[in-house]
Amino acid sequence: MIKVTKEMALDYHEEGKPGKIEIVPTKPYASQHDLALAYSPGVAYPCLEIEKNPEDAYRYTNKGNLVGVISNGTAVLGLGDIGALAGKPVMEGKALLFKIFAGLDAFDIELDEKDPAKIVEIVKAMAPTFGGINLEDIKAPECFTIETRLKEECDIPVMHDDQHGTAIISGAGLLNALLIQGKKIGDVRLVVNGAGAAAISCTRLYVALGINPKNIVMCDSKGVIRADREGLNPQKREFATERDLHTLADALNGADVFLGLSVADVVTPEMVMSMAPNPIVFALANPDPEIAYDLAVASRPDVIVATGRSDYPNQINNVIGFPYIFRGALDCGATGINEAMKIAAVHAIADLAKEPVPSVVDEAYGMSNIKFGRDYILPKALDPRLLLRVAPAVARAASESGIAKRPVPDWNVYQAKLQSIMGDDGKMMRRLADLARQTLKRVVICEGNMDNMLRSAARLAHDGICSPVVLGNEEMIEKRADRLGLSLDGVEIVNPRHDREEATRERYAAILSEKKAREGFSFNYALEKMYNRTYFGLMMVETGDADACLASTYSAGESTAVNVKSIIGLQDGFDHFATMHVLNTRKGTFFIADTAVNPDADKSTLIDIARLADKAVRFFAQEPVIAMLSYSNFGSSKHEEAKFVADAVRELHEKYPGVCVDGEMQVDYALNTVMRDRTFPFNKLNGKDVNTLVFPNLTAANSTCKMLLSMGIGSIIGPIQMGLKKPVYFTNSNSSEREIYDLATIAAVDAIVHDKK
């Protein structure tokens, strides 16, 4: 965990624009016409429609995507009653989390008021602004009164996250911990230390999940909350016990589960040792838990421990719940957040933790081999799948329980909407995945002995994208899969070096030596090459034993490309092949070539790259508009580098008039249609937005791709090969699971298209 200093934190909040959030327009505003539509007189029309039908506010305003984060700063986590203004950085942070995790906009509102009745009045008066209200950092017991009244008097979702968020996340963790420990929820004894808002809500939800109320003992600063104690508020009386117990130590003796929402260091190793076999300890006090993680784990080997800290396993972190709960609630027009929706969220979160963890999560946390078990009972906060699991579960529960005003009409469409919010590669990759599933193709993954390759293969098989074939030693691959927690169902393992593949090696060698007899390939030389996984995989495709191949290199080297060209061959009518990357941005999808193959491009190379790019972009169901790039615009420089680009464009116009291409031009003119057409009205792309960029050399294209990716401009798919006779794609040892998965999907679709030619 990175140590956060005071200076670092203050600099973060102060640098650039002070604070963490801003408002960004969503409609055009460049012209007077735009402004007339946005404000006066155009704004009157949606106002009148909403007056006639209040539900139209969800059509014409941001209400359905807007959450109010409201606090009076009386119970700021770890800081206490610091006041409304001092709590503003926390509320801004909450607004930021809503945006980055669920695409929800949020206004932070800090109320300088402690009277619960007045807070209710103020928030109720503001309710028309919002689609939902997130109450935050309001102390108990006032928070119970405020939330209860607002839920009764408002027709939008209202949730006090300190209560219910903690309950939902810890509830999911509890279900999984009980599963691992082999315990039934109805039988376990629960001890709760702390009787504030979060503790009460957690305990109530645990009861709803199946814990027997008779098996619950709750403690506060005075010890066990007994029924004979005087002056108990209604919340504490709800969980008062008749048992002859007085101290926390008394309560923990023989208990199965400990839930701490209190203060640091109140639990000793001796207390943990006194618990029942296979105990569960949720020590959630922040910043320091009721018992330190290391101390609890050291006390006995059979314990599962969770804390609120990110530097230890099993963090109970509300961010894996509240953004997605509100997302689902707002998307179906829920009038509240009821028990059914909370329980649906619990199960969605718990179930996700049991699924194989994508490498993007490993990479985000600098870890490897994250899998379901006593050190992983909850999904990580940066797991992008949370949005796709929790929001639909909540929306569905709202519909089924009858409080959804706008039930989701099509769950597939809704999933696609969430996918776009998540920042996935959008409609393009989903469409290709759907195509791939229609006809399962055998896709060879040459380096099956690598974690990223094996993870991808398992996921491809699980998702029904293709029938993956991994090359490598079966025993080693199976051990690796077991270590990674992967199921290899649907994954075929082929060991090119095994004796049982002797006949196949000889057959491949005979074919290859005959094909390349005049290139120095004797039978024995070709046979030796068949022990190489890449050569073996390529020959599987060449002979039809497989439909497509991911040829792996340990670096983006030229040698593999040369071998592939030699074995597979080039498409008719081309003297070169190339690669392209697909860049998905907020401004659209762009295709960039050549990014990996041709280090020394000349005029003929560029012509082939442009023609291949034209075909490749059409493969992705888009109309190619190609700009041939240079530092020069339409002959402004006579330097040789600019000249050969211009010469390539000229020949393309003459010989291939069906290709929509022009240049040479600078990249800013290529991407600014108005500026390009105004400055160079003769250009053949006039009126069209460029979506395909052909760079004059490999260095420029490759560097641009990696720069944009490193800067977070968008997501990138590739390299996608263009120009080979059969579907062979390139990966390397550093490729992420997602990159391999996407390339395999494209390769499978390419194989389907190839069969139809």
Which tags fit this structure?
Rossmann fold; six-stranded mixed sheet; 31 helices; alpha/beta; 13% strand; 6 domains; 757 residues
Can you walk me through this structure?
It contains 31 helices and 21 strands. Strand 6 (216-220) and strand 7 form a beta hairpin. The protein is globular. It folds into 6 domains: 27-61, no CATH class; 63-156, 3-Layer(aba) Sandwich (Rossmann fold), CATH 3.40.50.10380; 185-314, NAD(P)-binding Rossmann-like Domain (Rossmann fold, 3-Layer(aba) Sandwich), CATH 3.40.50; 320-419, no CATH class; 432-568, Rossmann fold (3-Layer(aba) Sandwich); 578-723, 3-Layer(aba) Sandwich (Rossmann fold), CATH 3.40.50.10750. Helices cover 45% and strands 13% of the residues. The model is unreliable at 554-558 (pLDDT under 50). The strands form 4 sheets. It has a 6-stranded mixed β-sheet, sandwiched between helices. With 757 residues, the chain is α/β, with parallel strands linked by helices.
